[in-house]
Structure formats: structure tokens, C-alpha cells
Specification:
mainly alpha; 6 helices
């Protein structure tokens, strides 16, 4: 049995993209106010978060205390998500999170088989 979190992420990966593709391109890129992110940048933020979580999920297996710094605004600004194609970002978000699901399934399996604590995961 998978954990509810893993099942939820799997569900979201297979549900959310179709909903996002329905958003008109102009709306997807629209910034509601200065200093606020567009929907496109929010998806970029989720990709950046997934990148940082990827580090956590891998490094927690061999480091006692993984030290990961994540400045979400700098990551978003310097990744230039606003200049990228929305479909590319949605597809990449889905693909990256499906990849993380595979890592999480393996972590969960190893944890259950070895009763090893997954300390400092988040």
C-alpha cells in the first residue's frame, strides 16, 4: 500500500495538467500585481520546489542532515519561467513529479523493509 501523500501526488500529476491546459495563454501569463507571480511562474515555482525536494529525497539517504537552501523568489526570477512556453512548463512539472514519485516509492519500500528512519526529509 502506498502512503496517502504518494497516492495524492500521483492523482494530481494525472489530473492537474489537463486543467492547466484549459487556461488561456494570456491568463496563464498574467501577473495580478507588481511583485506577484503569474500562473506560469507559480508552475515554475512548483518545478523549483520539486528540484529542491529531489535533492532532499536523494540526500536524506546518505547524509545525516542535508543542508539545502532555497530562496523561492531568486529561483523563480533566475529560472526565467515567465519567458518559457506554458505547455513546456506544465509537461515538465508533470514529468518531474512523476519521477519524484518513483523515488518516493523506493524510499518508502526501503523504509518498510529496513525500518530505517527517513530523518530530516523536509
Amino acid at each position: 500500500m502506498l502512503s496517502p501523500s504518494i497516492e495524492r501526488l500521483d492523482y494530481l500529476c494525472n489530473t492537474i495538467p489537463a486543467l492547466l491546459f484549459e487556461i488561456p495563454r494570456e491568463d496563464f501569463s498574467f501577473k495580478p500585481a507588481s511583485g506577484k507571480w503569474s500562473k506560469k511562474e507559480i508552475i515554475g515555482h512548483l518545478i523549483a520546489s520539486a528540484t529542491n525536494n529531489h535533492h532532499r529525497f536523494v540526500r536524506v539517504q546518505f547524509e545525516d542532515v542535508p543542508f539545502i537552501i532555497y530562496d523561492q523568489n531568486k529561483w523563480n526570477e533566475n529560472s526565467h519561467y515567465e519567458d518559457m512556453d506554458g505547455q513546456h512548463l506544465i509537461d515538465f512539472w508533470k514529468s518531474y513529479n512523476l519521477h519524484l514519485l518513483e523515488i518516493l516509492k523506493k524510499l518508502l519500500k526501503n523504509y518498510k523493509e529496513n525500518a530505517k528512519p527517513m530523518r530530516h526529509m523536509m
